Amino acid sequence: MNPMPAAAGLPDSALLFSETPSRFLVEVPDIVRAPFEALLKGSIGRLGKVTRTQNFVIKNKRSDKTLVRQPIERLHEAWETVS
């Protein structure tokens, strides 16, 4: 989680899971990331990036704290169990 527009002092859980009617999640290829972010400067935050690792990791870049680190396979199995 890179710095994103939010009220000061919000806990990590609120940054990750709070819902705002005007919030959109957009997936943007690296090749067009810079112009996309420039277009929306001041009202955009980057949540993360897709990598080739076999782990799902959520890390707060402000505090350098790892919030979640789980193998993708384990998350997939949990998802199939509840689906």
What features would you describe in this structure?
With about 80 residues, this protein is an alpha+beta fold. The protein has one domain. The protein has helices at about 10-15, 30-40, 70-80; strands at about 55-60, 65-70. A hairpin with a 4-residue loop joins strand 1 and strand 2 (about 65-70).
Report the uncertain regions: none
| Tally of helical segments | 3
Distance N to C terminus: 28 Å
Question: Percent of residues in helical segments?
Answer: 25-40%
Overall pLDDT: 81
Number of strands: 2
* Beta-strand proportion: 15-25%
The spatial strand order of the largest sheet comes to 1-2
Element-by-element helix/strand order: HHEEH
How would the global form be characterised?
globular
Radius of gyration: 15 Å
Number of domains in the coordinates?
1
Q: Main sheet, how many strands, which sense, barrel?
A: 2 strands, antiparallel
Structural class: alpha+beta
Give the gist of this structure.
The protein has one domain. The model has no long low-confidence stretch (mean pLDDT 81).
